[in-house]
Amino acid sequence: MQAAMEIKARFCHKEMEKYGACVSSNPSTWQEKCHELKLKVAHCTSSHPVIQKIRTDCAGEFMRFERCLRENQTAAQACSPEVARFAACAETVDISALATEAPQPS
């Protein structure tokens, strides 16, 4: 998870900052109001091979986390167990064969 977060921060900092600010500013309506920004973060991160591998290898954990967020839109902290399971899975993904650098998508 740490590697994925570092890659997201390295290549998608601007998108993540805007999305995070939107979510913080709209605690009960962030799913609707921040949807476009969420798509921009997803587009940015989807092209990096490390993130692709983690998303593939931990697809079930990630889907449960996303479902939890949809079901708990006003209480995202309720999804802490799902975040922990996804993070634990991500830590087990072997990324040693993947490139560590990739250009930022446009």
Topology:
Elements: H1 2-25, H2 30-33, H3 35-46, H4 49-57, H5 59-71, H6 80-92
If you had to describe this structure to a student in words, what would you say it looks like?
The chain has helices at 2-25, 30-33, 35-46, 49-57, 59-71, 80-92. By secondary structure, the chain is mostly helical. It has two domains: 11-47; 49-94. The two termini are 24 Å apart. The model is unreliable at 101-106 (pLDDT under 50).
Summarize the structure.
Residues 5-49 form the IMS import disulfide relay-system CHCH-CHCH-like Cx9C domain. It holds the Pfam family CX9C. The chain is built from six helices and no strands.
| Element string (H = helix, E = strand) | HHHHHH
DSSP summary: helix tally: 6
Secondary structure tally: strands: 0
Low-confidence stretches: 101-106
Largest sheet composition: none
The dominant shape is globular
GO cellular component, one term: mitochondrial intermembrane space
InterPro entries: CHCH_domain-containing_protein, CX9C
Protein name: Coiled-coil-helix-coiled-coil-helix domain-containing protein 5-like
